[in-house]
Amino acid sequence: MAWMLSGQPPTPADALRRIKAICKALPDPYAASITVLVTHPCVPRELLAATILTFRDDLAAYSKEDMATMLVAAWNGGKSGFDAVMRTRANAPKRSASMSWVKE
Q: What angle do CA 85, 69, 29 make, to 5 degrees?
């Protein structure tokens, strides 16, 4: 259990292996996402988002930024927050990466 403690970052290979197992074991996108988030507190959310998208075909419509936002929503707002971001981002036009420094 030491790998889940704050201040104990996993090796990239270990994190990938565990995240893949979590994503395959839990069919619900929210359950998989929140489980990955709480079991990997030392991994930046942007990396968790990219890794989750690698192993979840049902989230392929979302960008890494969308997934990172869903992780924040899941952490702060539970399932209802996660679902709200999922609904609003699924059909939203994608932002240009070249303008990522612009605040909206």
A: 65
Residue 48 · residue 37 · CB < 8 Å = yes
User: What is the 8-class DSSP label of residue 10?
Assistant: P
pLDDT in tens, 26-49: 999 999 999 999 888 888 999 999
Q: How many other CB atoms are found less than 10 A from the CB of residue 103?
A: 3
Q: How far apart are CA 9 and CA 12, in angstroms?
A: 9
pLDDT 10s digits, 51-80: 999 999 999 999 999 999 999 988 888 888
Q: Is 93 left (phi over 0), alpha (psi -120 to 50) or beta?
A: beta
pTM over 0.70: yes
Angle at 67 between CA 64 and CA 72, to 5 degrees: 125
